[in-house]
Write a structure and sequence with these properties.
Layout lengths: L1 E3 L12 E5 L7 H16 L3 E8 L2 H5 L11 H10 L4 E6 L2 H4 L3 H13 L3 E5 L12 H11 L3 E4 L3 E2 L2 E2 L2 H9 L3 H8 L3 E6 L6 H4 L6 E3 L11 E9 L2 E10 L10 E6 L10 E12 L6 H21 L1 H7 L7
Parallel strand pairs: 1-4, 2-3, 2-5, 3-4, 5-6
Antiparallel strand pairs: 7-8, 9-14, 10-13, 11-12, 11-14, 12-13
Length: 324
């Protein structure tokens, strides 16, 4: 996949571009339907499938008061769009100046003049440009006037639930990871570099943990304990993850601490990826370390039972292509 991170990098129109535009946060199954449609049209006409997205998310610029939490950061989104098979990804820096671009100017200057648009494919509820004036009706009228077809992909439902970034955020915040997987087509993942924590997990409790910092920009799942699969250095391990404030020890800083099964490597400062498979229990305050250790043992036992029962599915979902 060819990637442009600024419009200035595109020095000549793309060869027969069939284009879709969106924020694509989470790259859920609805987004994947858009990509599939664009790829199909590009293939039929020996053209190029193109996805246009923005960084940061436009709402972070035009409505910072909302404090939108992202399902996937720009790196994850790029990886997932590449995995979907798109030929060209254009990531437009979204600034306050760019936010003032009218829909008409975006069509003329970006889609037609810069990219050389052949056909546009958008989701049923897409709108862009200053004041979101570039809705479906506007785009279809522009297409008629400027000779490019506009295709609209209808909403995608899974078991009667709309696949949308809003719905995914809601489910993640509720810890409903199995339902999240249905809408994403994969497990929800957090990732980052392993940080040094209080180091009480191994020394005091006998369960060493890999600690990740939870960014304020990230979507934080429901606090509690999860069954996980951890991807590190091309290999996959089972584990249990606690997201929260460690009330037993009176912590005030949010953390994500993962105990990785059958693992004893030094990975401080190293990147890991953690797929959240299933919510086990809410975080709670225990009377002391002994009671906490007993509960962790029970958590580990339950997690290993679940992982053993779903071994085939988990091995498939933890292949490198899902965790690049």
């Amino acid at each position: 996949m060819r990637i442009y991170t600024d419009l200035s990098e595109i020095t000549e129109p793309i060869d027969k571009p069939f284009v879709t535009i969106g924020n694509f946060d989470g790259v859920h199954l609805g987004h994947q339907m858009l990509f599939s449609e664009v790829q199909s049209k590009a293939f039929q006409h020996s053209g190029t499938s193109v996805a246009i997205t923005f960084n940061p998310h436009p709402l972070k610029v035009v409505r910072p008061d909302i404090g939108i939490k992202l399902i996937s950061n720009c790196e994850q989104k790029r990886e997932l769009i590449e995995l979907a098979g798109i030929d060209v990804l254009i990531i437009i820096p979204f600034t306050k100046d760019f936010a003032g671009t009218t829909a008409a100017n975006f069509v003329d200057q970006v889609l037609i003049q810069k990219i050389g648009l052949q056909e546009l494919v958008v989701g049923y509820d897409y709108a862009f440009g200053k004041g979101r004036e570039g809705d479906i009706a506007f785009l279809k009228k522009q297409g008629e006037e400027k000779n490019f077809p506009v295709s609209v992909v209808e909403p995608y439902y899974v078991d009667g639930v709309l696949a949308s970034s809003t719905k995914v955020r809601e489910l993640v915040s509720e810890g409903r990871m199995r339902d999240v997987k249905k809408l994403l087509g994969r497990n929800y993942q957090i990732r980052g570099e392993v940080k040094k924590g209080k180091q009480r997990g191994g020394a005091q409790l006998g369960f060493p943990t890999a600690n990740l910092h939870i960014s304020e920009e990230d979507l934080c799942p429901r606090h509690g304990v999860y069954i996980t699969q951890v991807s590190y250095d091309g290999k996959c391990y089972g584990g249990v993850l606690n997201i929260g404030y460690n009330p037993t020890f009176g912590e005030e800083k949010l953390s994500a601490e993962t105990h990785i099964f059958d693992f004893n490597q030094d990975i401080y400062g190293k990147p890991i990826k953690i797929n959240l498979l299933q919510f086990l229990r809410a975080e709670k305050k225990f009377s002391g370390p002994d009671e906490l250790v007993r509960q962790i043992r029970e958590d580990v036992k339950q997690a290993k039972d679940v992982l053993a029962d779903a071994q085939k599915e988990i091995l498939l979902s933890c292949e490198e292509k899902y965790n690049r």
